[in-house]
Each structure stands twice: as C-alpha cells, then as structure tokens.
Write a structure and sequence with these properties.
Elements: E1 8-11, H1 13-30, E2 37-42, H2 46-55, E3 61-68, E4 81-84, E5 94-102, H3 106-116, E6 122-130, E7 143-147, E8 153-154, E9 170-172
Parallel strand pairs: 2-3, 2-5, 5-6, 6-7
Antiparallel strand pairs: 1-9, 3-4, 8-9
Helix pairs in contact: 1-2
Length: 173
Amino acid sequence: MFQPGKGRVQISEAQIAERIRALGAAIRQDYAGQEPHLVCVLNGAFIFMADLVRAIDLPLTLDFLAVSSYGNAEKSSGEVELIKDLRLPIAGRQVIIVEDIVDTGITLNYLLRLLEARQPASLRVAALLSKPSRRQVEVPIHYLGFEIEDAFVYGYGLDRAQRDRNLPFITSQ
C-alpha cells in the first residue's frame, strides 16, 4: 500500500479521470458511426482500458494481449516477448491499441508491426503516459493522456515489481 513520503504523486486521481473523459470524447468523435475495437496491452493498461471504454459512448469491442520487456525490472530489456495473443481477428477492423506507457517505443513499435500484419482497416494508439525523452523508436500516439519526465512511475495499473497497481493515482520513486 502507498505510504506518504515513499514517493510523490505526479498525477492525481481527479486529473486522470478528467483526461480520460477528454480522450473518450475525442475517440467518440473520431469514430462516430463506427465500432472501434480496443486492444488492451496487459497488465499495465487494464485500469486505463476499463475507464476509457466507459468514457467512449459508442458500440465497441475489445480484446487483450500481453507482452513483456521489463519483467520485474525498472528499465526495459529492449527485447519484446508476446505472452498472450489476441483471441479475435482484427482484419478490416478499426483498432485502437490501449497502452499504459510509451517509454523507449520498442514495445509499441513491435505491437504496431505485429498488428499491422493482420490487416486492420486502421490502427491507432491510446496511451496513458509518454516519456519522450526516453524514445529510441519514434511511434505514433493518437490519444495521449499525459507526457511525463523520465522517472519510474507506478499506480493506476502500472506496477512496482507487480505491486501498487491498485493505487488510484500515479506516483514516482
């Protein structure tokens, strides 16, 4: 559990909720009359995905995949491993990848190439957080929650050695 003094809150619960409402409105506008298919990148994006889909007032479908480039470390290994693949086909679908954080861009680049090969009608990215100062591979982010400095962050789905995902805010060490 979070203890005062063990980190500082960077993004409050209220700030997150407000930004997700805005992202949901933007997606609703961009996909009016369509049925987007959201793909949640587990594990970190599951809380963001849950709140985001409730903020999109459109018919939609969703699926989940899991990749790893961190393990329990605080920095990416640079190698991406697909742990869980999609259950549903995405060919011809309007796909939005829902990611917790875009750091080096390596993982998202891997996912974009993987999913583009499956021939969706369109492929966009919704990311809660971005650390542009760490980018090694430039990747598009169409719907961005927050740009942050280079710090190890956790809470609101992001973990610290598989802990603290349940915090309602995002904090750093």
